[in-house]
Amino acid sequence: MSIEKIASKIENDAKVVAKENVDAAKKKAWDVVDEANKKAEALIEKAKKSGIDAREKQVVRRKAVASIDGRNVILAKKQELIDECFNDAIDKVVSGDRDQYIDFLVSIVKAQGLSKGTISLSQSDQALSAKLSDKLSKEIPGSAFEIAAEPANIKGGLICTAGTTSYNASIEAIAEDIRGDIGAEVAEVLFGTQEN
User: Fold this and answer.
1) How many domains does the chain have?
2) Is residue 169 part of a domain?
3) CA separation (Å) from 48 to 40, 54, 59?
4) 7 plus 89 within the same structural domain
């Protein structure tokens, strides 16, 4: 499975999960804003009745603060949903078909242009060491890769060390790169047009 397909899968999974969750998050956030607006409107009415101008200004400030707090709740929830989408996508890639996953790991090594080095896998991927070594030998003739006995502290993907240089191709690092690349698209899906 190529990096582009993985990137596309992560992007699609993120969009699907975001689409499913964003309406619930928007409703909850807008309920907070509506409640704050109701409280602020009630305070405005009370201030108008008493005729105290200073109190009216205070209510206006509180309404502005409540509105800002409501927007902050919305933004925090949306950020939480984005994080959840990417974590779900990572989990799907790591727990997917083992043969496709090994092909993905080989494509990562090939993309680095290396023919030798030490490859560190996650604890859960250590069981794939022999299959990965065989596949690398077949796909990169003359290669001399060693699979590290000590697992890397990653969810999936790999870290390849050649000499003094390490290439972090963990699934988390790849997802973070993709996240940066599709940030505008995710923002459009989640933030779209502002509802009133």
Assistant:
1) 2
2) no
3) 12, 10, 10
4) yes
- pLDDT tens by residue, 66-81: 888 888 888 788 778 7
Residue 64 domain-assigned (yes or no): yes
User: Are 68 and 33 within 8 A, CB to CB?
Assistant: no
- Model confidence, pTM: 0.58
Could you write out the DSSP letters of every residue in 101-147? HHHHHHHHHHHHT-SEEEEE-BTTTGGGHHHHHHHHHHHSTT-EEEE
Report the candidate in 109, 96, 100 with the shortest Cα–Cα distance to residue 169: 109
Residue 174: exposed, middle, or buried by beta-carbon count in 10 A (0-12, 13-18, 19+)? buried
The 3-state DSSP class for residue 95 equals: coil
Q: Which residue reads 């560190």 in tokens?
A: 120
Domain interval for residue 56: 3-94+183-191
Same domain for 117 and 150, yes or no, is yes
Asked whether residue 17 falls in the same domain as residue 81, the answer is yes
Determine contact, residues 140/112, Cβ cutoff 8 Å. no
Summarised one tens digit per residue, pLDDT across range 96-154 is 888 898 999 999 899 888 889 999 999 989 999 999 999 999 988 888 889 999 999 99
